[in-house]
Each structure stands twice: as C-alpha cells, then as structure tokens.
## 1
Amino acid sequence: MAVLVPVLLIGFGATALADTASGAATNPPPGATPQGDATKGGQIYSQSGCAGCHGAALEGGVGAKLNPIQKLPGVADPLDPAYLVQTITNGRSGDPGFSAAMPPKGGSPTLTAQDIQDLAAFIIQSNKAANQPLSPTDLARSTVFWVSVGVAGMVIVAWLLAVYNMRWIARRARARSGGT
C-alpha cells in the first residue's frame, strides 16, 4: 500500500495534467462569433435605453435577463449571434412572464446594423466573462490536486504520529528496564 498509493496518485496526476487532443482549444464554427465590437456594444447598451428594461448589469427586469442569458421558449441557443441580431432587429413578444414585448431595435430606431452587431457581441462577451463551470479536464486536475494534498497531509500526520509513538514506546521500555 505504501508504494501503490503514491504510484496511483502520480499516474492519475500525470493523466489529468497531460494535454489531450480533446482538451485543446477548438476554433468556433463559422458564424458563431458576431462581427461586432463588444466595447462599443456596451456603450450602445448604456446609451440606447436597453438598460431600462434589461437592467444596467444585464440582470433583467421588465425585459429578459441577459447575463446569464435567460433561455426563452422556442430558443435553442440564446447566445447564437444570428438569434441575438434577429431579436434585437425585429423585437420579440409573447414570452410568458413578461408584461411588455421587446420593440424592434429596442425602441431605438436610430440603431444601425453595425450597432446591433456590437450589442450582440457585448451580450455574448458578458456571458462568456461570467463564471463558467469547470471543463471536465479542469475538474479532473482540480480533483487530483486536492486529493493529492489530502493524502500527503494524511501521510505527514501518520508519520508524525508514528515518530511520537516510537519515542513513547522507547521511553516506556527504558522506564521498565530501570534506565533513564
């Protein structure tokens, strides 16, 4: 057991820390990223009145929550740039739980097509910047690390107890034999 446990921990650690082909960064599919500027989109969001319904921090209110984005009925991927552009451009109505419909261009007819792309980029970037769950590889690495720390701590405590116990046994043996 004294050899098996460290060997298993080293093996699991090496496996979890190794870069795998599936864990490598992949290119997003074509059309998965909007053609807008998220920084400009944030400015447009604040200035065009979007915050009046969707909240200053995209937390929702009269309108849907945008960070993390609220999944509405009939929407497969609410962060799809095409869906966001279409919804901002044409508006949306009939969603349960909302008293008002979203008007086309959010009620701001001066929004250009580029402004809408920028808004979509801002919403997507805000959602990506939010805390995301760990990937399976990162979760495995974290688990292996903390299990290793726990096992190492237990080994140290066991060693300290063994050293103390051996000293105590030696003292008792000396006391029984009449030595000091």
## 2
Amino acid sequence: MDLFGTYNVDTSTGKIEFIEDWERVETPEFQGQGDFRIDEDGTLLLSGICATEPNPDNPDCIRRFVRSN
C-alpha cells in the first residue's frame, strides 16, 4: 500500500484523512480515514486505513511505519 499524498491530521482527536493524490495505484474500496498515534518507541501507527475490506488477521487495519536503513 502506497500512502503518499495529501492528508489532513487533527492532533487533538488523533484523526487522519487522505484527501488527494495519495493513490499512485488505484485501490478499489480504499478506506482513507482513520486514526493515528505515536507509540512509546516513536513509531507512527495508523488504524482504519484499509486497502480493501479488513484482513481477518488485522481487522483494525493497523499499519506500523518503520524507517528502512
């Protein structure tokens, strides 16, 4: 999933919404609204941002971002 693009973030509520140009590859049924938080290790976590219907192994569509070296 490529999450590049323009989005709105509300730091007071922890909500995030992808609003334009995020979809380099068309993704049917993409859910572009959800929640974000920074965990205790400083890692960005998104939930509810789903490429398609939620995966039964990850029903909350939690995405953990890591920096590659």
